[in-house]
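Incident log, structure service

09:12 report received: a user says their structure output differs between two submissions of the same chain.
09:20 pulled the input from the user's history:
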Amino acid sequence: MNTRDARRVLEAALICSHKPMAVREMRALFEGAVGADTIRALLDDLVRDCMDRGVELVCVASGWRYQSRAEIRVFMDRLHPEKPPKYSRATMETLAIIAYRQPVTRGDIEDIRGVTVSTQMVRQLEERGWIDVIGHREAPGRPALYATTRQFLDDLGLKSLEQLPALEALQGRAPEEMERQARPPLPQQASLLDEMLDPGVPMAPGRQESGDEAAGSEPLVAMPNPDLNPD
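09:34 re-ran on a clean worker, output below:
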């Protein structure tokens, strides 16, 4: 197969895929006849082809995917006016702690937040695919250690945790400056980063969250819903 045909196959596979594609999956398209270096070169060509288009080819944690550009998103939203899922401010605080301090136990999160972390809150993040148990701490009771997942990075449009904005660099800055520093690909992702980095008024230490708070009676935050979401 010549390079032109291989590029067409690769482009079609990426457009039709419902989730990001890793290079090893792309090699399977050609039964190993096209090497990884050639595929990466073809991906670079496809990225350049999108320079003046409304879509872009990006690499996230799970692989490569096409998505609409940030400035096009407002028009795309008119096709799907339904609102994205929402989570409570307390849930966002918990997610931020896990993202920046991982791996952590529920006890670690409670020490930082000063309140008891509800089981429902942790389950919400697990069901969304943003956190997972990666082991257990060698301590009495062997508490579970939580960390973020590839899905979390994919939904933020990031390739690795190193691309998360540095807390020290962003604390105290205006929201628009935080968004510019983070450079997320979609507006909803910028909002998620804002909420993670600026969780609002801290709760009083030792206060038990009520069921209503855990269920979302606190200010709600729209979560990212990028085009071609791996879900």
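09:41 both user submissions now match this output. Likely a transient worker issue. Closing.
09:42 reviewer note: Confidence is low (pLDDT under 50) at residues 172-191, 199-231. The beta strands are 55-60, 63-68, 86-88, 115-116, 131-136, 144-148, 207-208, 220-222.
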